[in-house]
């Protein structure tokens, strides 16, 4: 799932990065608005949008955009600006030292990050250039890291294969909802039980059709006209992550928690939940189809494992390098005032955050 540049623009325009552009400025003016300067190099709103769109797919793979909360937007835009400043600092040093960028390393970055080098934006190509050039900077500074051997890679796989190397499970679920605000709860419960009993006696190859018919006839939910097919996100066919976050932009629940637990408890296509009661009424959930939730083979995982094991050491040195680089750099807002250094330096890398990055990268 990705966000359009327009969606990101409208979402991020309200943030404090845009300090000199009037609120009613036209969209093209916002896109070219200069937000920050790094040693004279400009970072624009368009640059921020591109990186934020990439990071959304990286940190929230498969997640519907309409579930993102304001505090997550703030965090995402902050990370995007950190990344843009990091890129500019590295490429500034590359230019000063006239360093040749390693094309093999750059292509590896594209593969790991699932970026198409042909269609990649200018900003994402600069991200790849910075990543590829940093090893050379380390070497020139007398720093290096030891690449993991086959045994270390295999040990990591054996330890984490059941947690990190499982594909994201996606499902199609139908829903019958009887609203307790519109009828007697006791009567509605009996009706829900009767519907479930009827469906339970229906052959599996006919159950989807009958459930959809019952949903259209009896359900009082907003997906009634679709035969109860839940649409969570922008997939018109109804696929969504079974572990989707049950919070909207305003941090309120999307669905009652009892209903969500029932969705997550469905295992095999054709399965139905028990009749579930929430504060809103009675729910019956049906798993129409499922995919994913499978073991990622070692042959595919080993490249990502090698990347993960080397990246922590690499990032730790990069953190220290950026602190030194900032001593001789000038980073300002577009009006010339100093950009806060605490917004430039990311938090120190650790094993947990790197494993989260690995989990997202391999999906």
Describe the fold and architecture.
- The chain has 363 residues and is of the alpha+beta class.
- The chain folds into 2 domains: 5-147 and 297-362, Orthogonal Bundle (Triger factor/SurA peptide-binding fold); 170-291, Chitinase A, domain 3.
- The protein contains 12 helices and 7 strands.
- The chain has helices at residues 5-12, 27-31, 45-59, 70-97, 103-113, 122-140, 150-160, 185-200, 204-218, 257-265, 298-326, 351-362, and strands spanning 34-38, 41-44, 170-179, 240-241, 276-277, 281-291, 331-333.
- The strands form 2 sheets. It has a 4-stranded antiparallel sheet, with helices on both faces. The protein has a 3-stranded antiparallel sheet with strand order 2-1-7.
- The two termini are 13 Å apart.
- Residues 1-28 have low confidence and may be disordered.
């Amino acid at each position: 799932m990705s966000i359009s540049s327009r969606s990101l623009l409208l979402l991020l325009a309200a943030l404090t990065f845009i300090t000199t552009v009037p609120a009613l400025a036209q969209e093209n003016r916002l896109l070219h608005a200069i937000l920050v300067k790094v040693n004279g190099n400009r970072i624009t709103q368009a640059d921020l949008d591109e990186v934020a769109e990439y990071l959304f797919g990286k940190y929230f793979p498969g997640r519907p955009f309409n579930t993102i909360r304001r505090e997550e937007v703030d965090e995402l835009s902050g990370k995007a600006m950190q990344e843009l400043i990091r890129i500019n600092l590295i490429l500034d040093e590359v230019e000063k030292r006239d360093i040749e960028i390693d094309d093999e390393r750059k292509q590896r970055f594209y593969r790991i990050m699932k970026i198409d080098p042909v269609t990649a934006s200018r900003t994402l190509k600069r991200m790849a250039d910075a990543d590829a050039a940093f090893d050379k900077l380390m070497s020139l500074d007398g720093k290096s890291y030891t690449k993991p051997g086959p045994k270390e890679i295999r040990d990591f796989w054996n330890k984490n294969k059941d947690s990190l190397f499982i594909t994201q499970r996606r499902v199609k679920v139908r829903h019958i909802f009887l609203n307790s605000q519109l009828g007697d709860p006791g009567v509605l419960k009996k009706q829900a039980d009767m519907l479930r009993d009827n469906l339970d006696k229906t052959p599996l190859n006919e159950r989807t059709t009958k459930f959809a018919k019952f949903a259209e006839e009896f359900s009082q939910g907003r997906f009634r006209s679709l035969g109860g097919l839940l649409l969570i996100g922008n997939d018109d066919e109804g696929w969504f992550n079974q572990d989707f976050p049950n919070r909207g932009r305003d941090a309120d629940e999307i669905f009652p928690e009892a209903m969500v637990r029932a969705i997550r408890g469905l295992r095999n296509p054709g399965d139905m939940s028990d009749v579930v009661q929430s504060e809103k009424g009675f729910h019956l959930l049906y798993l129409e189809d499922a995919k994913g939730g499978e073991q990622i083979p070692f042959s595919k995982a080993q490249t990502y494992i090698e990347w993960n094991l080397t990246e922590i050491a690499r990032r730790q040195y990069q953190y220290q390098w950026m602190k030194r680089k900032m001593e001789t750099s000038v980073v300002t807002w577009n009006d010339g005032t100093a950009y806060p250094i605490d917004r430039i330096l990311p938090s120190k890398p650790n094993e947990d955050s790197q494993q989260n990055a690995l989990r997202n990268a391999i999906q």
